[in-house]
């Protein structure tokens, strides 16, 4: 699951079991394959989505899901437009911790 826009979405997958924990890049086994079962094959703004939240920037990282928390990284201030990237000194990186049940931002650094 890559975050490519200003929001992150999370499906109805419950993080209450250890098998759903996604604690490293490309998941539990490093192969990008989830061990969760009965996953939906269709997603939209009204279907099979638990929540959506606006992040402080864009990102291209793999989220970490652990103990009812989701950790994502994103950036702002530089490189948002390929043709006019801006000033590198304005780059700001963000680490955001979200509640997996509600999508509420718990903290950000």
In short:
The chain has 109 residues and is an all-beta fold.
Description of the molecule:
By secondary structure, this protein is mainly beta. It is built from no helices and six strands. A hairpin with a 5-residue loop joins β5 and β6 (105-108). The two termini are 21 Å apart.
Q: What order do the helices and strands come in, and which of them pair?
A:
Layout: E1 7-11, E2 49-54, E3 64-66, E4 69-76, E5 92-99, E6 105-108
Antiparallel strand pairs: 1-2, 3-4, 4-5, 5-6
| Morphology call | globular
How many angstroms separate the termini?
A: 21 Å
What level of helicity do the residues show? under 10%
Give me the side-by-side strand order of the main sheet.
3-4-5-6
Quote the beta fraction: 25-35%
Main sheet properties: 4 strands, antiparallel
